[in-house]
Amino acid sequence: MSDKEQLLVIENLRTHFFTKIGVVKAVDDISFSVNKGEVLGLVGESGSGKSVTGFSMLGLVDPPGRITGGKILFNGQDIVSLSDDGLRALRGKNIAMIFQDPMMTLNPVLRIDTQMIEAITAHEKVARRIARERSRDALSLVGIASPDERLKAYPHQLSGGMRQRVSIAIALLNKPDLIIADEPTTALDVTIQSQILYEIKKLCRETGTALIWITHDLTVVAGLADHICVMYAGRIVEQGKISDVLDHPLHPYTRGLIGSVPSRNKRGSALYQIPGMTPSLLNLPEGCAFRQRCPRADNDCLVCPEITSEIEGRHLRCFHPHVEILHE
Amino acid sequence: MIVFIIRRSLQSGVVLLLMSVLVFVGVYAIGNPVDILISPEATPQEYEEAIIAMGLDKPMWSQYLTFLNGALHGDLGNSFVFNEPALKLILQRLPATLELAFGALFIAIVLGIPLGLIAGIKSESWVGRSIMSGSILGFSVPTFWVGLMMIMVFAVMLGWLPASGRGQTTDLFGIPVSFFSLDGLSHILLPAVNLGLFKLSLTIRLTRAGTRENLQLDYVKFARAKGLTNGRVIGVHVLKNILIPVVTVLGLELGSLIAFAVVTETIFAWPGMGKLLIDSIGVLDRPIIVAYLLITVTMFIVINFVVDVLYSVLDPRVRLGEEKI
Lengths: 328, 325
Known about the structure:
By secondary structure, chain A is of the alpha/beta class. Helix content of chain A is about 30%, strand content about 25%. Chain A is built from eleven helices and eleven strands. The radius of gyration of chain A is 21 Å and the shape is globular. In chain B, α8 (about 180-215) packs across α10 (about 230-260) and α12 (about 275-280) packs antiparallel against α13. The radius of gyration of chain B is 24 Å and the shape is globular. The interface of A and B includes residues 89, 99 and 104 of A.
């Protein structure tokens, strides 16, 4: 893992929420890294801690949550120990984020141009006219027709897909090294979804921007990411190259996830479901959090499994991985 | 926009007409002014003559029609007491009341919005909590009592500020105003604070509620994710969203500030139209009461209209008559 081109290295990150009814370990000891220009898929169910991981990287975890341990090294610099001003300078400039719901991310009472220009002037001293030109270029880059008119529009005058394109354009404005996309296509129609997906992929490839794509949808990541991290209850249970993980899932949870994706081959038979429910983060079972839903669990699993590396480039948190499929 | 204005004017006309009927009937019911105005020693003949002179011998509908006819020509009748046009009497007092009301509104906005923002951002800290406790006090303590206490403390005990009157006034476009001279300012301070206290509490609560609600929203997080400074996120993004409800409510409250400045004007002997109204009710000076109420209604209508226009300036989603691009 000593690649020279490492952009982001996360080591043993823990983000906990100190609520009145107890400590919620939303992110609990996760480690991964992203190389320059690479796409990482962060997959998990709702409440598995994917979004909190994303917000941790920008220092935008809302109280009562805070990062309680670990390091987030961005270009070698630890984000966790940065001052508020240092973080602010980083946000939007080096690391940009695209949110899930385009209906909510743009300020309803400010024009698109205001919201774009301020993203530029927050980091550089440029004339408004130049900032405006750059905003217009960014809009046409993401496939918005007649960008000059759109600049003068208010968010409510644009459709959902258009608004998400605007958010993407805002994220691209300062040519960041890393974009964190938090389920940006979930709230959109399937057709728009694939358009946006295609465009982000293209833009990242062209600009050499690294991408962390947070999603619960395995099919989206399959065609997009280079690497994948599967999260469950605040921990990464399996990570590795996308083709390895999808073709040979070793962790029972990953297997369950892949098994429950509807596909044409399984037409007619009932869709597989992982038994049970996601545990509440307030009340996680001892040991492996997936233990109660896992067909392979036994007494070993009462202890939290350490991260193991069965094969080159694969990391697992499991005592009983499906290693047999590797030898088939 | 033009359609909006026309429709609005027609509605306003109907409201005014209805209001005039209600007011007229109401005032008619509260008693006979002649009993109060004429000295007890007057002969029955003098009594009859006075009634005829004031037009009170005619049936109510006839009196109303006479009044309506006059009102349409801009004449709301003569005061029984001063024997001068009621409209003129009220308009003479209007600047003083307006000045007081706007002073109160100014205090409510200038103090209320920042305090509300602080209370909303630091809602868990002692600062936020003390602001909120203070605003509860402002809500629950009666205006007249606060006014009396302020006179006690600042005028009687400390002697810092005058307790009554308007002080020195300067003319601004022919209208006497107090806020250009130090003496005038010192006179308006106590009554304006007194009148504005309730609105100040209201503004704090509205702003705080809006701030807390808006800070939770995604657009705030997105604005932060763009790397904007805290000042810009709060001062532009959040504030502009909060202003929508604040402007709506304060606009409506401005009407009530003007109309119900009566208590404060009475306590501080402020020569405004509220004091005139109280005096007129005391002597059943019908034309003044009717004219006052109609002017108040007109003001409410105008203020509401201005609020609607302002609202559309602040919130692009309700911009009137605008088409989707």
